[in-house]
Every structure is written in C-alpha cells, then in structure tokens.
Write a structure and sequence with these properties.
Phosphoenolpyruvate Carboxykinase, domain 1; 603 residues; Phosphoenolpyruvate Carboxykinase, domain 2; globular; 22% strand; single chain; alpha+beta
C-alpha cells in the first residue's frame, strides 16, 4: 500500500517518518487528515455508526455527542508515564525514568503490527496561533477516530498547520495506538485499550518525540495536550529560555477600562477553568478568557513576559460544572461538544453530579447501565470530560489568536487546602514567588489515580507534567527572573479558595466572588494599595478588600487570613523533606527562601 502525499505535504522528513510508522504498525489503510469540517463530520458519523458515539438530542444540544470509555481507561496513568532522558538524573525524582534505548526496544515490539485491521490517521496540528514564533507543530499518528475528532477541536489541525510547517520546518512526532489489532472482519470492542500495566505514555526529551500505547483517553492519547504542550515543551522552554506552564490566562478589565492579564496555576480539578471563565460579581469588572489550562510565556522586547494559549479548545472536567459554578462554561458546551463518561438523560441530553440542584429520576450512567436516583454509584465518572471549541466561549478573548501573546502582570499559584494557607497573599519578590510555586501542595482530586483528599506536593501544579528534573525546573524559574528588570516581572500571588470551618463547610463563597480577590491583585500590580507584611507574604488590609454585600463575620475574616505558626512549623518540615529528594539539584535560592520563612515565623 502506497501513500499519495502529492496534495498533502512535500515535507520529506515527515513523509519518511509516516512511511516508517506505517511499515511498523501495519494498518489496513492510511488517512492523511486535512482538518476540514467535512472530514470532522464524516469521522463523527462513522463513530456514530460504529456505536462509539451517540448523537445528543439536536434540540437540547446540537452538534454534540456522548460516549463512554472502558472502565479501565478513565484518567491519566502517571505510573505508566515515562521520561526517557539519556541520564536518569535528568528525569529527576518526580518522574518515572527508563533508559531510552531499552524503552525504544519495548515500544518497537508493542507497536509492531499494532494497527492491523485498523485505519491509521495522520494528524498535523499546531499548538498556538498559526504563524506565531511561540507556536510548535506536532504530527500525531493514531488508530483512534476518537482521538482524531478530539484533536480537531483541541488544536489548530490540518492543512493550515502543514502550510505553517512548510517543506523543512521542525515538528514533534507523536505516535499513538490503542494497541488492539483486529483480525480481518473483526469488529473489536467499542473502546479498545490495554490493561493499565500494558499502557505506555513515553517522552524522549533529547529527540523531542512522544510514543503512547494502550490508552485512548484524554491526555494519554491527545498528545498535543499534556505530552507536547507541557512535558516536551517544558524541555524546549528550559533549553531556549521561556516557560511552558500548567496555567490559565485571563484578561481582567476594571470599570475604568484598564486591562491586565493574569496567569494562574492550580492542580487539575481545583477550579482553573472556573477562574478562567469567571463571571465577576463586582459591578463594572469584566473577564475575558485567553486559555483555561496551558500557558507558554516568553519575554518580549520590552522585557515583559508575554503568554499564548497553545490550545484551541477546552478539555474540561464536567462534574461540578453548573450555571452557578461556571455559567460561561455551560454556555460554551451548549453545542458542538463531545462528552466522555458523563451520564445520558432519557431525553437525549447529558448530566453529571453538581450540574443541577435536582437529580434526574433515571439516567444511563457512564458505565452504560441503567441508573436510578438514589443509587450509591456515581452517574458520571468524577473525571468525566467535555471537549469543546474555545471560540464558543461567550467571553473568549479577542487576543487568543494574537501571535505576539498577551503581557502578564500577575501569576497566581493555588491549591486545595482546608486550612493553613490564607485566602490570598503576595510574594515579596520573584524568588519568593518561585518558592511559593515550588512548595505548592494540594488535596488530591479524581483527575489522577490516587487517594482522594490526601495531601500531595505538586510544585507549580506541574508534578505530572514537567519533562525533566524538577530541581532544575525551579532553577530555570530563578534564572528567568534574572532575564528582566524586577519592575517588568509579573507579581506572584498565592490563593486558597478552599478553607473550611470546623463543620467541613467552605467559608469563602468562591466562584464569581473570587473576582474580589482578583481586584485586589489587580490593584497590587500598580501598588495602588498598601499591604501588610506577614511571615508568609504580603496580605491585604481588610479595608482594601471589596467585600460589599458578602456579610462575612469578623470571625470568618480572621479565619480566612489566620497564620497558624505551629501549623506552619510542621508544614516547613514537610516541605523540607519533600525538597530533600532533589538533592544537589535544589537551587540555593530555594533553600534560602525556606530558611527565610522559618526565621520570619520565629520573629
């Protein structure tokens, strides 16, 4: 079987790689994707005909589909995610390392004939605006139609990406297979995948390539997302002096028309998408969404840090998303959306826990079984997702396609902590802010396998996504701060929306009310208001927080900003123990910050 590249691309290295992978995987046929709407519609119809997709009621949710995965393929598999750098120390203690030569031999064995009886799809895609110096081209080869249609939404895919690549441009090769070959005429399972211990999500930082085998779900299979945009991009960023970060980007405009851009980094399922699409409760304040998950940031000629969102869609966590928590997300997913592992209503719409006050009497659950109200089982998987075009967001930023990016005034770190971390405080300087990112920890959620609620250290919310030694990553952040004048650097803040009282109830209302904290951050960027120095950082004066209409008691306010010195002494021990795993890769500047915190607490 030959491949006709004539009307597709004359990039010789790309052609050679495709032919090499075809010969390895032995597919029945090859489809070179053009990224057209017609192609997308054809693929969705095929998925529907094969019983993988169910078209939702067009009156309820036009152009949208429901599907469910295998119950063994529902989330990232961090213990099967590998960084295969030449030296183990370059992967660092937080990554799973394997010798690249050994891993390549393993992969060549499992990929040999893995696409027999299946069609191979070749997906050229651009991460970032077409034509931007900040953008990166990838090409994903896959045998999953589900992956192809999701990549259509999540990236700038097809002919436009190939034109940007040209005849000799560099691209990141992304090799994917569900790992389930078919006999001639065999139908196979509707969601093919391998058992967890047979899955491989592998990154080769030296050669900038990705191989993924055995999973068809989310970031394991949509290789432009976490694999390229964070793990490989973080390595490229270190080598070339920029930042690839797990951060939302939003524009915040004051009633006077002044605008600032803010990037924020939270672990998965800690409210990143909600903040990116926030509807401010403060009169006159407006937010527009540049991106909800990933930011690539480089210094401009003016010394300021500029960010782009490399993605073109949202792959959002469904449970908890509602008209109360995120009305803009609900409006975004009103049409042209793929829903994975949510519940299906009897009238052909979707539902998940937290979506409505009233639970439907009957549903088809994410396990494709009949579900009745009151059941002990969740109707939607806790990590169920929607894949939806960013351009459908009612507050999508007009700057989303700006090839230059947007100037970042503030960076926010935050996690899910029931106590200890105050509502908001500002770092003393860039190095202190880097320490806040490095020391970040959060109670675990369903986005990754593990014990829900258990505290885990998640530096910069990059623990599962950094493609090299995290100690060197901290050093890279320190060095980035030395690239520009301090007055040009974004100010760094820490927030915690999740403080609870003794009855396990959240004491800060959150959601749209978080705009009150964004307003304080906005004003602090220009030193329009003073702050209070505390051992942790610069906290707000209560009179400078716009709390009108919230009716928070004095006791609640004290709890929101309480600094528990003995609790922090214990926290320092935990941070110190965590940092010890980086050994001599932990920068002295970070050690100094930890010592400074200890001294301030003892003063």
């Amino acid at each position: 079987m030959s491949i006709d590249f004539s009307n597709w691309s004359n990039h010789k290295n790309l052609q050679n790689w495709i032919l090499e992978m075809k010969n390895l995987c032995k597919p029945e046929s090859v489809h070179l994707c053009d990224g057209s709407k017609q192609e997308f519609d054809t693929f969705c119809k095929r998925l529907e005909d094969e019983g993988v997709f169910k078209r939702l009621n067009p009156e309820k949710r036009p152009g949208s589909f429901w599907c469910v995965s295998d119950s063994n393929d529902v989330a990232r598999v961090e213990d099967r995610t590998f960084i295969c750098s030449e030296k183990e120390v370059d992967a660092g203690p937080t990554n799973h390392w394997c010798d690249p030569k050994e891993m390549k031999q393993t992969l060549l064995k499992v990929f040999d004939g893995c696409m027999e009886g299946r069609e191979m799809y070749v997906i050229p895609f651009c991460m970032g605006p077409i034509g931007s110096k900040l953008s990166i081209i990838g090409v994903e080869i896959t045998d999953s139609l589900y992956v192809a249609v999701n990549m259509f939404i999540m990236t700038r895919m097809g002919q436009k990406a190939l034109e940007f690549l040209g005849q000799s441009g560099e691209f990141v090769p992304c090799m994917h297979s569900v790992g389930v070959p078919l006999e001639k005429g065999e139908k196979g399972p509707s969601w093919p995948c391998q058992p967890t211990d047979k899955k491989y999500i592998v990154h080769f930082p030296q050669e900038k390539s990705i191989w993924s085998y055995g999973s068809g779900y989310g970031g394991n299979a949509l290789l432009g997302k976490k694999c390229l945009a964070l793990r490989i991009a973080s390595v490229l960023a270190k080598e070339n002096g920029w930042l690839a970060e797990h951060m939302l980007i939003l524009g915040l405009t004051s009633p006077e028309g002044e605008k600032k851009y803010i990037a924020a980094s939270f672990p998965s399922a800690c409210g990143k998408t909600n903040l990116a699409m926030i509807t401010p409760t403060l009169p006159g304040w407006k937010v527009d969404c540049v991106g909800d998950d990933i930011a690539w940031m480089k210094f401009g000629k003016d010394g300021k840090l500029y960010a782009i969102n490399p993605e073109n869609g949202y792959f959002g966590v469904a449970p908890g998303t509602s008209m109360q928590s995120n009305p803009n997300a609900m409006k975004t997913i009103a049409k042209n959306t793929i829903f994975t592992n949510v519940a299906l209503t009897d009238d052909g719409d979707v539902w998940w826990e937290g979506m409505t006050k009233e639970t439907p009497e009957h549903l088809l659950s994410w396990t494709n079984k009949s579900w009745d109200k009151g059941s002990q089982e969740k109707a939607a998987h806790p990590n169920s997702r929607f894949t939806t075009p960013a351009k459908q967001c009612p507050i999508v930023s007009q700057e989303m396609d700006n090839p230059e990016g947007v100037p970042i005034s503030a960076i926010i770190f935050g996690g899910r902590r029931a106590s200890l971390e105050p509502l908001v405080y500002e770092a003393f300087d860039w190095n202190h802010g880097t320490f806040l990112g490095a020391a970040l920890s959060s109670e675990m959620t369903a986005a990754a396998k593990g014990t829900i609620g258990k505290l885990r250290h998640d530096p910069f919310a990059m623990l599962p996504f950094c493609g090299y030694n995290m100690g060197d990553y901290f050093k890279h952040w320190i060095e980035m701060g030395q690239q520009s004048d301090a007055s040009n650097l974004p100010k760094i803040f820490h927030v915690n929306w999740f403080i609870k009282d003794e009855n396990e109830k959240f004491i800060w209302p959150g959601f749209g009310e978080n705009s009150r904290i964004l307003k304080w951050i906005f004003q602090r960027c220009d030193h329009k208001i003073e702050s209070l120095d505390t051992p942790l950082g610069k906290c707000p004066k209560v009179e400078d927080l716009d709390l009108n209409g919230l009716n928070l008691s004095k006791e609640t306010l004290e709890k929101l900003f309480h600094i528990d010195k003995s609790g922090w002494e214990e926290e320092i021990k935990g941070i110190e123990e965590y940092f010890s795993k980086f050994k001599d890769h932990l920068p002295n500047e970070i050690k100094d910050q930890l010592e400074n915190l200890r001294k301030r607490l003892n003063q």
